[in-house]
């Protein structure tokens, strides 16, 4: 039983007496306590594979910022690695895959039996669930199949992901084969996360915005649907950044919650999706401003979304150079907001 | 008088007997003939300042690809440079400003008397206009004030432009002062382009997509409006990439044409903007596909937009690694499309 289950009630469309709030990327990045842990290990990937440290940094924002949920500290790229495609995290540049997927034989070699390779995540989840002791829900997550596919083809971050998109146009059959394998792996991964005690999961489609609607409908949406149908034990949050065109279609999936970036106006999202809980969507840059601006912008957003069927969050991950006191103030503003306003 | 004025007639909403087509970034990037010129000079910036070579590479796509308009080969960052903020073009990385705008005194030091500093562009325009000899219209262009502002603060390309956005939240007054100076400079620049014979101008808001609608309405739209009101001599095309939320507002400006990226569905754009010519919006990655796919995708788009009040284009600049034969085929498909279909 959870002491604070506001987030789960909001996700399920149940009444909440105040709006729940958490921040994407809250574990890591902005807290001095996180940086201390981070500098004690040899690189990001060592941290991602260290269950005790994952547990520690996952709990930090709960203890220090007072958020209404913990999200496990991990990386969406653990899935390609567990499928057989290793990556490096290059300091201040981002992920780099020494080998990428280029042809049919590359896809054939990938395994979908990923659970044995992800034991470090499951160990971390169990430790964290115990350590949380029911204070707040624990959020699990995975990358969306399209976004994982994009990294596996492109091999690194990109403004356009033109190589990944090229494969969609030049070899749709191979693309679907790879997307299918990623989806199978992701479902197995998420189901095991649920077994380890996560209360809700979020699917991050970070690079949705480079696709046209027609391509999203053909190459991304069916796999998102498969995930929302397979994960029936806990609520599923779908977050497709910059995919303004897909809200209605997400509204017709089995997901419980739809995450929004800050380019989507709350009222417009409510019009397009009437029966789902919405999550988001403060511009992360608002946290650079003074406290009065943070309060004004946040309360304007809360007013626009309304207090029910809503989970407050940023519209993307918190930026690394944000003062954690500002982030803490944002959390306070939401938690002090009277829903009778 | 122009031999082929299809683009201008489409821009003005007049009847066209076939759909005009050009490609953003058609001058440069994909043509072997461009690469030959490019390798004959010492870096991109030398080329941008060399009127005879600008003229040559501007004409290449007209001669080789058969496009229905020429767009002057240049860079949106000539404006900050003419205002006093130099930039370098770092090979395979992009623009870099050694000094950026950080405080009030940095803004004060900038000049808006930019025309004398941009003589190389005007010389190139006059040469090109003469060389075109009325075959097709000549397109002039400039960066949108927000996008120029973003580079002047951030100092380089960025996925988030978080430093530029930070200034909008932390010092809106200084932000408006800088945006105002950029706009004044841009209007002077565009007016002189018109004097040199450009038939139409396009304003590129390449980084519009990082702003929320509220921020775009406060910090970008008013300056776009000022430009469309100041440039009354020729039609103005507004193109704000990834700013799906601003189409209706663009529809209420004095612009003649609204450019669209490929995340916008043609039918949706027609619903939101009823009285403007639309331009776009093929996913540049379609040009990686085989000819049959290029034909199918292009004709599907033409069908969706309809043949009137429409200028065919990609949804963003053509990618550097596209085979120019594929680009040429795209142009042919549009030009062979029967508007009675």
Brief account:
The structure is a homodimer of 341-residue chains. With 341 residues, chain A is of the alpha/beta class.
Notable traits:
9 strands, globular, 16 helices, TIM Barrel, two-stranded antiparallel sheet, homodimer, 46% helix, alpha/beta, 341 residues, 7-stranded parallel β-sheet
Determine the oligomeric state from the structure: homodimer
Rounded mean pLDDT of chain A is 97
Share of helical residues of chain A: 40-55%
Report how far apart the termini of chain A are: 30 Å
Describe the global form of chain A.
globular
Order of helices and strands of chain A: HHHHEHEEHHEHHHEHHEHEHEHEH
Structural class of chain A: alpha/beta
How many discrete domains of chain A? 1
Q: What percentage of the residues of chain A does DSSP assign to strands (E)? A: 5-15%
Please state the second-level CATH architecture of chain A: Alpha-Beta Barrel
- Count of helix runs of chain A: 16
The pair of chains with the biggest contact is: A-B, 34 and 34 residues
Q: What would the CATH topology of chain A be?
A: TIM Barrel
What is the radius of gyration of chain A computed over CA atoms, rounded to a whole number of angstroms? 19 Å
In what order do the strands lie side by side in the largest sheet of chain A?
1-4-5-6-7-8-9
Major sheet size, sense and barrel closure of chain A? 7 strands, parallel
CATH class of chain A: Alpha Beta
The number of E-state strands of chain A comes to 9
Poorly predicted runs of chain A are none
